[in-house]
């Protein structure tokens, strides 16, 4: 395995001094890149995911074409519910559909904590091939969904702005909800450990819907399970926790032992640092929609963001995934402005 030529991301996560701020973008492997769109039009989502050559090609694209400091494996958080026994459809321009959602205790009988090597081997194959293809150019990020966010899809059966059915499930059947959350947690720990064994240098836990919960419910239905995952992983590789909208829990998330915290664009950098403390790396928090602004405006806003966070214990990123309609040269401007800052 080639030694890393660019280890800025890992150094930042470990709290080491970096020569410049590392930068990558959530959902950078696809959506907005013309070469990705050609593959999307030719192959279904799971064909792209489950073919290691295709997943590798997509993962490496933004490294080659945009110049980011890390690659994140092309996959989806919903491969975990699929591996646990649920049918998952990912429909282009519509979103996820789980046609037979969890409604009660009887539905848990059709789920299992799977052998991840058997059910998710294609992710590990893609990681190994990507690692070889990158040849040490940049670190490789693995990832999984936070148990609460996965429960949202498994119970709601589709995307939602409120996930009211998922919340009602937790409030009305808390014992069953916690049983399901623990099954997801156990699967995710095994999944992330296997990703690291296959070549991931760090892992990120995505809690896309953590911000829908009150602070008390976030601890009850989300953070206690994220804490289990971080505890299981933190001595194996650096971990990043990204809970969109859950700024109120930054202090508690920092206390999990995670190496990094993702920050969305709805909180000032200075306030995020105040809440999280000085002993953890922050990542974020550029509004993805702002990449649609004129390039001079993007450059100005990036510099403001960097000034707010500082250049140490910080990873420049978006506050959520990149949008499909972002011009590639705008994404490049974001990355290049970060790279040039302070030089």
UniProtKB/TrEMBL annotation:
Q: Name one GO molecular function term.
A: uroporphyrinogen decarboxylase activity
Please give the pathway this protein is involved in.
Porphyrin-containing compound metabolism; protoporphyrin-IX biosynthesis; coproporphyrinogen-III from 5-aminolevulinate: step 4/4
Site Transition state stabilizer — annotated at 76
HAMAP family named in the record: URO_D (MF_00218)
Relate the assembly described in the record.
Homodimer.
Task: Please explain the role this protein plays, according to its UniProt record.
Answer: Catalyzes the decarboxylation of four acetate groups of uroporphyrinogen-III to yield coproporphyrinogen-III.
Question: Where located?
Answer: Cytoplasm
**What Pfam families does the entry give?**
URO-D
Top-tier EC class: lyase
The entry sums up its family as follows:
Belongs to the uroporphyrinogen decarboxylase family.
Catalytically driven reaction(s): uroporphyrinogen III + 4 H(+) = coproporphyrinogen III + 4 CO2
Q: Which UniProt keywords apply?
A: Cytoplasm, Decarboxylase, Lyase, Porphyrin biosynthesis
Q: What residues does the Uroporphyrinogen decarboxylase (URO-D) domain cover?
A: 22-31
Q: What is its EC number?
A: 4.1.1.37
Name the principal localization, coarsely classed. cytoplasm
**What residues does substrate bind to?**
27-31, 46, 76, 153, 208, 320
Put simply, this protein is called: Uroporphyrinogen decarboxylase
Question: Which organism's genome codes for this protein?
Answer: Chitinophaga nivalis
UniProt cross-references to SUPFAM superfamilies, sorted A to Z: UROD/MetE-like
């Amino acid at each position: 395995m080639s030694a890393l030529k660019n280890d800025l991301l890992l150094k930042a996560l470990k709290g080491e001094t970096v020569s410049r701020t590392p930068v990558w973008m959530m959902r950078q492997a696809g959506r907005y890149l013309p070469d990705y769109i050609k593959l999307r039009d030719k192959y279904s989502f799971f064909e792209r995911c489950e073919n290691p050559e295709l997943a590798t090609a997509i993962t490496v694209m933004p490294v080659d074409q945009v110049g980011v400091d890390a690659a994140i494996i092309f996959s989806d958080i919903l491969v975990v519910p699929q591996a646990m026994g649920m049918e998952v459809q990912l429909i282009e321009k519509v979103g996820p559909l789980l046609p037979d959602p969890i409604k009660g205790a009887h539905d848990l009988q059709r789920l299992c904590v799977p052998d991840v090597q058997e059910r998710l081997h294609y992710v590990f194959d893609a990681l190994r091939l990507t690692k070889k293809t990158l040849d040490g150019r940049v670190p490789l990020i693995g990832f999984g969904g936070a148990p609460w966010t996965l429960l949202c899809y498994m119970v709601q059966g589709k995307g939602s702005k409120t996930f009211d059915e998922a919340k009602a499930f937790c409030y009305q059947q808390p014992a069953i909800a916690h049983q399901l959350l623990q099954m997801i947690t156990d699967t995710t720990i095994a999944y992330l450990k296997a990703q690291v064994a296959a070549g991931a240098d760090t892992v990120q836990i995505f809690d896309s819907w953590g911000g829908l919960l009150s602070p008390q419910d976030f601890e009850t239905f989300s953070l206690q399970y994220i804490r289990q995952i971080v505890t299981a992983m933190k001595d194996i590789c650096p971990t990043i926790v990204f809970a969109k909208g859950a700024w109120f829990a930054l202090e508690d998330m920092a206390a999990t032992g995670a190496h990094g915290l993702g920050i969305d664009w709805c909180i000032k950098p200075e306030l995020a640092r105040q809440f999280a403390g000085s002993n953890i790396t922050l990542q974020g928090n550029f509004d993805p929609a702002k990449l649609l602004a004129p390039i001079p405006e993007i450059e100005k806003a990036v510099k403001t963001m960097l000034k707010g966070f500082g250049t140490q214990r910080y990873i420049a990123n978006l506050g959520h995934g990149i949008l499909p309609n972002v011009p590639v040269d705008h994404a490049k401007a974001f990355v290049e402005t970060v790279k040039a800052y302070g030089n």
